[in-house]
């Protein structure tokens, strides 16, 4: 931590013209919540709960889930904490949890994430019970990953409804009103954002997968890194669609993919209308410092120029030039 960034920790995350851009932390383990707070984070925008599985020798119990969520809430008892339900499969496979993908099937396009949860209801229900119970101790929110269709979202919400009913019948303490959001990380969902916005309380754009699926480019294959680009005009247009849908229905939209942790793209995201970013905890001070140098009108001008560009090269070299002017 340099002194400069230490000093900025307690300052508000606002633009020069006074517009708040909330900064949340992305975490994989509960103990990281404290460091997100220590660095000036205003809550947790993404808790990747599948790490409960990736880290464990045995399958986590409802109590394991519950304890982890309560630990995160200890760092943020009065701030939003977004629990993303299990995003297992494809590149995230737990030890001892054999996932067979038939030969020739692409795991990233197969049974993963919410699709896996919807086919392993025992896993899903255990997690949802723990979330509903932990929600009594703070401002917990639920987020479903990799939603591709409205039917899938409705099914996930229906199971949540069932779980809450069971808790009620069993006389277990839980919270009835829990905000429910979804990741926007599949192009089909982004295209249908207007319709989805009527059925959830918030969106969070997962650029890591959104880029992978939009550009048909594996996020882990360096040989095609020239295609896998956050600056691709198709990505910027999809983000714009999602932000506009959120604005028109009055639901908050954030970005929790790697793109929001990259200072190059932060002015663009603000210019596209984003007012919440969820970032890698150690980068919170740096991103805040950048936000405090922006004005909304300049960011909007920048976004309008970018929206007229045709290639990722043009977008990224323009953003690099703008970034140099800011620093
Ligand atoms: C994303 O896809 O951008 C995202 C935040 O989720 P993950 O990286 O965990 O797939
Ligand atoms: Mg993802």
How is the secondary structure organized here?
Elements lengths: L2 H6 L13 E6 L4 H7 L5 E5 L2 H4 L7 H14 L4 E5 L29 H6 L1 H14 L4 E6 L5 H20 L10 E5 L2 H5 L1 H5 L4 E4 L1 H8 L18 H17 L3 E3 L10 H6 L4 E4 L4 H8 L4 H11 L5 H15 L1
Parallel strand pairs: 1-2, 1-8, 2-3, 3-4, 4-5, 5-6, 6-7
Helix pairs in contact: 2-4, 4-6, 6-7
The protein binds phosphoenolpyruvate and magnesium ion.
Question: Helical stretch count?
Answer: 15
Strand content: 5-15%
* Spans of at least 5 consecutive residues with low confidence: none
Strand order of the largest sheet: 7-6-5-4-3-2-1-8
Shape: globular
The computed structural class is alpha/beta
Order of helices and strands: HEHEHHEHHEHEHHEHHEHEHHH
Domain PEP-utilising enzyme C-terminal: 4-294
Protein name: Phosphoenolpyruvate-protein phosphotransferase
Subcellular location: Cytoplasm
Catalytic activity: L-histidyl-[protein] + phosphoenolpyruvate = N(pros)-phospho-L-histidyl-[protein] + pyruvate
Could you characterize the architecture of this molecule?
Its cofactor is Mg(2+). It is an enzyme of class 2 (transferase). It is found in: Cytoplasm. Keywords: Cytoplasm, Kinase, Magnesium, Metal-binding, Phosphotransferase system, Pyruvate, Sugar transport, Transferase, Transport. With 327 residues, this protein is of the alpha/beta class. The chain is 45% helix and 12% strand. The chain has helices at 3-8, 32-38, 51-54, 62-75, 114-119, 121-134, 150-169, 187-191, 193-197, 207-214, 233-249, 266-271, 284-291, 296-306, 312-326; strands at 22-27, 44-48, 80-84, 139-144, 180-184, 202-205, 253-255, 276-279. An eight-stranded parallel beta sheet has the order 7-6-5-4-3-2-1-8. Helix 4 runs parallel beside helix 6. The protein binds phosphoenolpyruvate and magnesium ion (MG). The site of magnesium ion (MG) has 5 residues, from helix 10.
